[in-house]
Give the backbone structure.
Amino acid sequence: MKLGSSIVVAGPSSSLTVPGIIVSQIVASLAEENSIVRIDVDSTNDFDAGLYRSQSLAAAHHRTSAGDIVIRQAPSGSRLRAQAFREWITPDAQGAIAIAWPGLDNAWIRQFLSTAKTFGVPSMVMTISLPRSDHAKVFALAEFMYEADLVLVGNADESEYLARAFGHSGPKVEVHKALSLHGRANRSTTQQITAFLPKDNYETLATLLAAYDAIPEAWIESYSLQIVMRYKGETAEKMIAESYHSEYLNLIGTDISTTDLNRLCASSSALIIADPAFNSRAFSIAVECGVAIVVLASAQLPDVGHGYVGALLADKNRPVSVRVALSHALRLAELHFPPPDAWNELAHRLVGRTTLRAVSSPQPLLPSRQIG
């Protein structure tokens, strides 16, 4: 592949972290119709250390899909990194996109944009809008983004704040829903978890209960698990009663209406869904609610979750895998994840703009003041 014919995308890389997963999703959406050079920019070698994390379902799907993508690893040193940018951003590149995450080290963006400007390559910065927006962090980002042709954010308030910070001579600032991770209702002090299991699936129920019973006694008062599973006989009820944390469990064995299913998903801090089918009602509604989902799967990758960055994979036969994934999902409880179609809308919007040299069929653009 000729690098100069590509769109160059730079940002965090780890598929175990939300920033890296989002970069991968943006790259995957752009790569459907464009050649991409992806530059992984990580501040330290242990950027994803310190917390147990589970595999992203969206990232797992990315690895099985085709795409014209060349991956580069940016050096950690400032001088070597600037040199690498000059090699990877060539004058005939279609565009240069930097993806920023508030709170991470984003100083590299200034070098990235400066290189693009030197070669006359259209440039853009996309920054993720988090639930607890910090104007100090947004202001710090403005310092690095000034040379961009366009800045995209996920929140209208941040857009207005950045526009004021840039002034009349700075880049244009617009909003797109794919870059917003806020919108869920405030969580209570109790972590409400809802699990959906196939009918009479006692093996998966046993795995789930073993994972839940591993929660330390000092923490369990902050958790509540409701299990939705149709069943016959008394086996399921007996398993619940014999669970170590049975006091914090509730078994729902009846059919659930769509209204009640919406309520359960919207009120949960995290969801667990075992072996969801491609037409799973619970998974579809969970995605609409933007909630973090733990997908319990066997060896075969489930045919759901394409483009949904809020889903995590766990082995339905290993309680420790379920426990780790659940802990990971609960750390994401404040985030409202975008629907999968938002990423394709974002990709079409990017390549259809005059700020990027279009390399696929342009799509109708939203006015700059309109929220995507």
User: Anything to note?
Assistant: The first helix runs from residue 18 to 31. Residues 358-372 have pLDDT under 50 and may be disordered.
